[in-house]
Write a sequence for this structure.
């Protein structure tokens, strides 16, 4: 039974980190004319209306993208990410926010291919409504199994985003076992994995990072953004992105972004960031 709906969290601090990293990687892929493949294993609805009652319930975007949106000139390095948001917001306001599929669609050129997977039947319907274009394939299926089935993709270079809800503890294990299979079929792909930083009693991020570092990929980069102190029992105080086979200079781009981003998104004095090579 799937209960997670991303509309409740659209545009929050975790989305800012995830989609900024996604945009950096897609910009690198777009630097060459040669086409690339983009595969999203957990796509969600594709895009979100911020006035929707689910999104308004906690208005998490207020602590995320809304803190950056009206000072875009202060963030020249995020121009590509902002352009993807702007594509949904023709006026000056911020009424809509793109999910990872619409960020990908913004960068997609004629020669690129986008594969989107989503298991929830309502979310996949929304995804179909939000993304209808040439070169986009939408699959109503399990993203872990689906990813292995799609590899190696054509075009043969590209990016996979793995962004599960982690409501099920098995998701952590499935990320690692799926990437182990993916590495055998497509060792040259760029893989990015989002994960939450949770309260002490329930956090599993260290185990996940250790598993990803041991898979065989030669370079494994990890960026974490913490917006508040870690609680003892429950709550998410930040999130991380592990990038396996990161593109050239991604580490430098993140080193330039994370100090100011963690200050701008801080909710208390424990906010901060970590940027490290796991391998
Ligand atoms: C965190 S949301 C994705 C958000 C999206 N990547 C973005 O950045 O806009 C996770 C999504 O995964 C879906 N999901 C959960 N388990 C899945 C599975 N095994 N395969 C594919 N999708 C799944 C959920 O329905 C939910 O829509």
């Amino acid at each position: 039974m799937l209960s997670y709906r991303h509309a409740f969290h659209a545009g929050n601090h975790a989305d800012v980190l995830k989609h900024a990293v996604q945009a950096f990687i897609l910009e690198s892929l777009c630097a060459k004319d040669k086409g690339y493949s983009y595969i999203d294993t957990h796509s969600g609805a594709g895009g979100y209306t911020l006035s929707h009652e689910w999104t308004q319930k906690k208005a998490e975007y207020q602590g995320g993208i809304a803190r950056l949106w009206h000072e875009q000139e202060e963030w020249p390095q995020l121009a590509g990410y902002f352009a993807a948001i702007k594509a949904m917001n023709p006026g000056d306001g911020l009424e809509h926010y793109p999910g990872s599929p619409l960020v990908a669609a913004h960068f997609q050129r004629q020669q690129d291919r986008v594969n989107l997977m989503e298991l929830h039947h309502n979310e996949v319907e929304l995804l179909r409504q939000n993304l209808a274009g040439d070169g986009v394939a939408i699959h109503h299926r399990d993203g872990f199994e689906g990813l292995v089935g799609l590899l190696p993709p054509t075009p043969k270079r590209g990016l996979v985003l793995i962004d599960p809800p982690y409501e099920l503890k098995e998701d952590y294990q499935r990320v690692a076992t799926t990437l182990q299979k993916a590495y055998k079929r497509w060792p040259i792909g760029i893989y990015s994995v989002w994960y939450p930083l949770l309260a002490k009693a329930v956090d599993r991020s260290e185990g996940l990072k250790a598993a990803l570092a041991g898979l065989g990929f030669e370079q494994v980069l990890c960026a974490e953004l913490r917006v508040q102190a870690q609680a003892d029992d429950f709550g998410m105080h930040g999130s991380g992105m592990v990038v396996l086979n990161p593109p050239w200079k991604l580490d430098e781009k993140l080193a330039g972004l994370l100090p100011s981003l963690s200050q701008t998104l801080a909710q208390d004095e424990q906010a901060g960031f970590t940027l490290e090579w796991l391998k």
